[in-house]
Every structure is written in structure tokens, then in C-alpha cells.
Write a structure and sequence with these properties.
It is a single chain. The chain is of the alpha/beta class. The protein folds into two domains: 206 residues, Glycosidases (TIM Barrel, Alpha-Beta Barrel); 115 residues, Sandwich (Immunoglobulin-like), CATH 2.60.40. The protein is built from eight helices and 13 strands. β7 and β8 form a beta hairpin. About 2% of the residues have low confidence.
Length: 333
């Protein structure tokens, strides 16, 4: 606090988050600094010396844990050197056994070359990681609204930003396959959020206000992507009473939507979130499964959602021929 604004900005942020919101407080930390002389010396020595982690990285990590008590440590900047150079296991042993957050903290998987997607409280694997299938270990898809940058770019063009349709596709497919979403926007040098970022976040917020029950507190269903309609991804309520079929593309003038995965029953009920039409008519595709939903009475322009639509299915099941990965996920959750 001897330089700059002469106040503890990180402490101010931690206090504001904890006192004014119900958001869990976490911190990003970069293991390396590209141009730090100690790091460059270690690098020149083939990482056989550890001047930088011993004098900078590890003391700094312990300081932020002891002073700010984050519930999440999102590590990064690790990839040029091994976990033994960073002494990651030494720090993590202290973190989980002796630190003031040992009972509450979670960490990601960026603790040294070769560690991502192999070890960590939750996997991030790589930026924009979205495998498109069920992953049984906790994982996160971290991506940017600016396709090419984690920061703010004054020279960016409109096409450089993902559309709200692309953002919702990332959100839906990630949650459907058991992941968490981390969405980045780069503030300006004045600490402001650019209007294009604000618009995307507000659009996502308006969509979640209507369709949030298919996302918040949901779990993956027996199927993630539909067996017939590739534009449909599924989630389930935790009590497994409801299945949510998230439709990414609604073709113009369509009167029916076919789903291949659900198996209906005599008490199956289908509604559309954000619609006041009420229960929708449907009929089975065959005895082995599949549902055709009648949407002839739905006018898309009158719906509360302009992008991506969620059908709520009650009293349906899916094929019991599920993979070992799915079985493990259900056993663990």
C-alpha cells in the first residue's frame, strides 16, 4: 500500500463482495510473471533453480490466503515449468491442512506443466474447454466474450465478439455435460465494462430469468445431446422429477419438435418456460421412445425468450443403456 492508490484494493473488493452480495469470493493468481528477473534467471537455468517461486510466488500465495481467505484459488501461468519447480504440492498440502481456508477452499488444475486435466479440485484443461460430452470430474469452461482477448481491445470489431446465441450455446452445452461456466469480460483502463460486454451479460441475465431453473441447481440427465435433434441439450432437476430440453435453434414455421431421447409415460406433461400457453400437446414417436411436441399454437415472437428455448418435461425417462461415465456421475451426485 506504499504505492499507487495507497489503499488495500483487494481487501476493499473482498469486503464489498462479502458484505453486499451472496457471491463466493475467489481469487485469480498467475504463477509466473513474464519479465520478472528472478523468473527469467530460473528459466535460463532450465528451471533447475527456484529463486522466483521461493522468493515471490509461494510467499505471495500464502499472503493472499492468510489476508483475504478466498474460497476459490484460480491458478494460471504455470505451463512453462513443472509442478516440482513451483513446489505446488508443498503449497497445496499447506492450503488443505493448515491454512485458514483448509475446510472450504477449492482450486483448479493449473499447477505445473502436464497437470491440467489430470489433477485439481476442478479441471479447466485449457481455455475455452468444452468437450461436448459428460465429464465425471468437476470441470469449468472458461471463455471470453471477445473471441481473441481476455482484456479490453480498443481496435476490436463487432465480429470479434461472440453473439448472445453463441454465448447461450456455450452455457447450455457446458451445464448439460456437467461443467461450470466462467465468462470473462475485459474492463477498460478506467475500470468500466464496455457497452458490448454489458449488453451480452444483460441478455444472458434476461434469458436466465426465464429459463434459470434449467441451469441453476441442475444436474446432467442420462442424455446430454438428443439422439435425433442435435440442437437439443438436456439437463435435469436434482430431484429428477423434471427434464429440461434446451432447444438452440427454432426453425421458422415449424409446427412440431421431435425429441429422440425421452421415453414418455401416461402422465407425461410438457410445458415451455416463458410461455403462457400451458401444457403442450405431444405424442410418442414409438414404443421404444421419442416424443413429438406440437408447437403449432406457439408464436415465437410472443415468447419471453428470444434465443434458446427450454421445454420442461415431467414424468419422462431415458434409455437405461447409459455409459460407465454416466453411472459414475450419478453415483457421485
Amino acid at each position: 500500500m506504499d504505492v499507487g492508490p495507497k489503499r488495500d484494493l483487494l481487501g476493499d473488493l473482498a469486503n464489498a463482495i462479502r458484505n453486499r452480495t451472496d457471491i463466493v469470493f475467489g481469487l485469480y493468481h498467475s504463477m509466473y510473471e513474464w519479465f520478472h528477473p528472478l523468473y527469467l534467471e530460473d528459466k535460463q537455468n532450465g528451471f533447475q533453480t527456484q529463486y522466483f517461486p521461493n522468493m515471490k510466488t509461494l510467499p505471495e500465495l500464502k499472503e493472499i490466503v492468510e489476508n483475504y481467505k478466498p474460497s476459490v484459488i484460480w491458478s494460471d501461468g504455470d505451463w512453462e515449468a513443472s509442478d516440482t519447480y513451483w513446489n505446488s504440492t508443498g503449497f497445496l498440502a499447506w492450503l488443505y491442512n493448515e491454512s485458514p481456508v483448509k475446510d472450504t477452499v477449492v482450486v483448479n488444475d493449473r499447477w505445473g506443466n502436464g497437470i491440467p486435466c489430470r489433477h485439481g479440485g476442478f479441471y479447466t484443461c485449457s481455455d475455452h474447454y468444452n468437450p461436448g460430452h459428460l465429464v465425471t470430474h468437476k470441470w469449468e469452461n472458461c471463455f471470453t466474450i471477445d473471441k481473441d482477448s481476455w482484456g479490453f481491445r480498443r481496435t476490436a470489431k463487432l465480429d470479434d465478439y461472440i453473439t448472445i446465441q453463441e454465448l447461450l450455446k456455450e452455457l447450455i452445452t457446458t451445464v448439460s455435460t456437467g461443467g461450470n461456466v466462467l465468462i470473462n469480460v475485459g474492463p477498460t483502463s478506467f475500470g468500466k465494462i464496455a457497452p458490448i460486454f454489458e449488453e451480452r451479460l444483460r441478455q444472458m441475465g434476461s434469458w436466465l430469468k426465464v429459463n434459470g431453473e434449467a441451469i441453476y441447481s441442475s444436474i446432467p440427465w442420462k442424455y446430454q445431446n438428443d439422439t435425433i435433434n442435435s440442437n437439443v441439450w438436456y439437463t435435469s432437476s436434482k430431484d429428477k422429477q423434471y427434464v429440461y430440453a434446451c432447444l438452440l435453434v427454432w426453425s421458422k414455421d415449424t409446427t412440431e419438435i421431435m425429441l429422440g431421447a425421452p421415453i414418455s409415460s401416461g402422465s407425461t406433461r410438457v410445458t415451455l418456460l416463458g410461455s403462457d400457453v400451458g401444457p403442450l400437446k405431444w405424442h410418442s414417436v414409438s414404443a421404444s421412445g421419442g416424443i413429438i411436441i406440437d408447437v403449432s399454437n406457439i408464436k415465437t415472437y410472443s415468447l419471453a425468450s428470444d434465443w434458446a428455448w427450454v421445454f420442461k418435461l415431467e414424468s419422462v425417462s431415458g434409455s437405461e443403456l447409459i455409459t460407465k461415465k454416466r453411472k459414475k456421475y450419478y453415483n457421485d451426485n
